[in-house]
Amino acid sequence: MKIVVVGHGMVGHKFLESLAETGLQDAQVTVLCEEPRAAYDRVHLSEFFAGKSADDLSVVEPGFFERTGFSLRLAARAASIDRRAHTVTTADGEVLPYDKLVLATGSSPFVPPVPGRDRPHCFVYRTIEDLEAMKASGAKSKTGVVVGGGLLGLECAKALRDMGLDTHVVEFAPRLMAVQVDEGGGRVLRAKIEDLGLHVHTGRNTVEITDGATARHRMVFADGTWLETDMIVFSAGIRPRDEVARQCVLAIGPRGGVVIDSECRTSDHNIYAVGECASWNDQTFGLVAPGYDMARVAAKHIAGQSGAAFVGADMSTKLKLMGVDVASIGDAQGKTANSRSYQYIDEVKQIYKKIVVSPDGKQLLGAVLVGNADEYGTLLQMALNGITLPESPEFLILPSSDGQAKPGLGVDALPDSAQICSCNNVTKGQICAAVCEGATDIGKLKACTKAGATCGGCVPLVTQVMKFEMKKQGMEVNNHLCEHFAYSRQEMYHLIRVGQIKTFDDLLAKHGKGLGCDICKPTAASILASVWNDFVLKKELAGLQDSNDYYLGNIQKDGSYSVVPRMPGGEVTPDGLIAVGTVAKKYGLYTKVTGGARVDMFGARVEQLPLIWEELIAAGFESGHAYGKSLRTVKSCVGSTWCRYGVDDSVGLAVELENRYKGLRAPHKIKFGVSGCTRECAEAQGKDIGVIATEKGWNLYVCGNGGMKPRHAELFASDLSKADLIKLIDRVLMFYVRTADRLQRTSTWRDNMEGGLGYLQNVILNDSLGLNAELEAQMQHVVNTYQCEWKTAVTDPEVRKRFRSFVNSDKKDEHIVFVEERGQIRPARPEERAEAALDATQA
Amino acid sequence: MTTDTLTWTAVCAADDILPNTGVCALVGNHHVAIFRVGDSQFFAIDNVDPKTQVSVLSRGLVGNLGDRIVVASPLYKHHFDLRTGECLESPELSVRAHEVRTDSGRVLIATP
Fold first, then answer.
1. Chain B residues bordering chain A (beta-carbon distance below 8 Å)
2. What is the pTM of this model?
């Protein structure tokens, strides 16, 4: 069967994924993509301005087209369809035959017919190319206007603000987000947006755009007032892209869009339409979730699988606009006859909550939440599943007073068919089934069901369902460290801190059993170091350290160790380099410059380590803690000192940060990066803590990671002074040290955090747990008690004598054998080792 | 085998081994890992990790899994029973256990 898909956006690609999942044989699939790149995440488009690349935004899993054999044609626009001949003709004149044709052409931005709308520096906000053009213009502009105060318009305003423009939002309607929120919600939203430094103009009808006196453009409004700006972006709604459907005379809906039935077939049954270009029951759908539903239905229908049908979609939404939570459910405006509403307004914290209930007060019809949308998941499920409301529904949105539990929905009340994740259409039943098959943490659950993997809004609810199901199955929701301690790492941390416990024996006697093991000992060692910061090799602690910490070096495959002196910020003097070279040469070590911007030396036997370090310490070096679950390096670019683009002194800050946090033991290793400008040469956004200089200070990014599962760090706070930056890093790191699981990097810590980045920001920026003073004091304690572990080790004869290959001999360990490669040593392979042994016996 | 046929070699003082750690001793040409568990219990097994042919087992962390006293290899973390030398994860990678005793503060290892 020949299948042609017109359009490769998010929905077009979901169709392809769904088609591949059906296992349909002998399908020859060709995809025409008008844009120069494959499908990308338009929902998170504004992240392009926060530093994400087009590749980051891609929704195509690597190898998808190779695996499926589907053929993707980029920059290929479908110009016309011949329904009789069953062919599509591209703009380049190529004719493609089809048996089944799928239209996934999406929509185009609506630009009001205002004279002057096509002047230079006027844009729409839809594709990456649009964004690139906006970026270029933004660099040459001071002010920017977004026409349209809807959902997309506010996203776009965020993008302009991120570019540093003085940003205005001009809306025709009397309030922002007029479709989703009511008057009260619109008022609070406006106040919040204005607090962020944006200018909001509602009830303004632009009649003309002309030359400005103080800026490029002047926008003239119907009431005679005007506004001057350098750049204008139109984001006043979307219109279905149905031109090719009109050309071949398919039925078109009253508000545009290709008419489809519940199987997503158009008026020509060999042609399907999915996503924003389709009109179902005279409705078009500008959200991605219903588009995905249509894509799945069409794919199944084409593959001959029966039963799937598109039955409309719930248009409830929850989103975060410039840090402001906004959510809208069902009949948000209270349009149902005789419906009644409850409202809660907090003008101090700028929170607005409203629920709309049925005339008998038993059903939830709709809701609006602005400023705080914590109840969204619960309210949505109540509305969707017709769950009977509690007697006093107002408590659903009122803040709970101390100790009083909110009337929860109780996930047990949900039917198995309840859709928990609307982006990926995952039901409660599917989540429960996955839990029974062993997906017992949120990471695994995301991976196997995709629940919560797209927008993430449902993660708290998914977690509740998971925990409930685990309990129901009698699975212990068990986060015990190991058989010796019936506590999580976080609990162990508190036991040690609150109980003033300083040794493992004491910990074991009071809270554990048995001898301990290779799980709990290093965990306890790490916590003891984070809390008390005693020398890790002192007698009571030495036996807890795993080999790397015990020998203060990384054990290599042949039992030799590496030597890594600290070079803060990657800065090293010529004399320092010479000293490193001299030592490496003297002891015959392999040297390599690492990704962490310092020099590693390999191939030291344990008895050589103290000798090597004595020489390095004499040359002014300190331990680099490459062996510890602790701060590794702070990578930096050269910054404003040398670089002609540099905005601030990134090396200076990197050195300062590295010296502040060196030696801090944590649940896992920690890496920093500091870039002197937005070119980001230090790759700070791939680090646990990333810092980037701005014109106004420093931007702080947190919880990034390279490695097996790369994750970009997220912007945590902007334009900070150095003092504030250090305070925030103190708090974030100490909070991580306190609450993370063992061997959990900051990125997974963040991914597993209920409430996500917003929660973390609330704790650190708003002190919601009242912990900040304590976190800062604890960090200061660690900073004040820092010692170079190697310096202490080499000067303590008791410790020093542990560095021997044999307790009863000064011989070398003959298992460590090197051969030469590219002018340096490397460990011998087994066959080379056998040869060396033979030579030794014959010699 | 009876103790009559064993040769006992004194390798170090008991206090040369920190409680709950191990050391490696050279007994003849043989690398033997000796562990001190608590204050007064001593165990000895081969020091060479059979998986990697590297002499490191004495540098592993000591503890217990259920009722077995074990060391975790510092390289790939598989566990060896200190009483028998058995590798818990892959019995084919087991090592030999050796007899060990203390006498007036000295640690002695038996070699056949």
1. 11-12, 16-21, 23-26, 31, 34, 37-38, 48, 52-56, 59-66, 69-70, 72, 74-75, 77, 79
2. 0.60
